[in-house]
Write a structure and sequence with these properties.
Keywords: Membrane, Transmembrane, Transmembrane helix. The protein is mostly helical. It has a domain of 28 residues. Helix content is 88%, strand content 0%. It is built from six helices and no strands. Helix 2 packs antiparallel against helix 3 and helix 2 packs parallel to helix 4.
């Protein structure tokens, strides 16, 4: 009975919602954003937020509400980071794809450095293009 209550109920739901939010943040911030990784991150964050909201609505006791609030904060923060990551992945899809192809074929450290330099140059060119287009329009 003791073990079962530890893995079910509102406290377990809140732990799971916090875990989803933290995993979402990991996916969003750990590497270069790709569309698929950012989509997974955003999906996990939204699942965590929904689970925390459903638990908060279902429960009326104060200790659960405090933990629910922390799960909601982490979930919403992860969702915001996920949206930003997805936006960056969509905006920079060409440059990121080019870098991933180059990095996959890089055998030596020098060729990996060349791929990183090419990515940096591509990103600088994209940012310069975006700045010039916003200043004109």
């Amino acid at each position: 009975m003791q073990i079962r209550s530890r893995f079910t109920g509102p406290a377990a739901n809140i732990r799971f919602a916090l875990t989803l939010g933290l995993i979402s943040l990991y996916f969003a911030l750990s590497t270069i954003p790709t569309i698929s990784r950012s989509t997974v991150s955003l999906t996990l964050a939204m699942a965590g937020v929904i689970l925390a909201l459903r638990t908060r609505i279902a429960q009326k006791s104060e200790p659960i509400k405090v933990r629910t609030a922390s799960a909601l904060v982490v979930g919403f923060a992860a969702a915001i980071v996920g949206v930003l990551s997805l936006s960056a992945a969509v905006l920079l899809n060409t440059e990121i794809s080019r870098y991933e192809e180059c990095a996959a074929g890089a055998i030596t450290h020098a060729s990996a450095q060349a791929c990183q330099t090419q990515l940096r140059d591509d990103l600088n060119a994209r940012i310069t293009h975006l700045r010039s287009s916003t200043q004109q329009g």
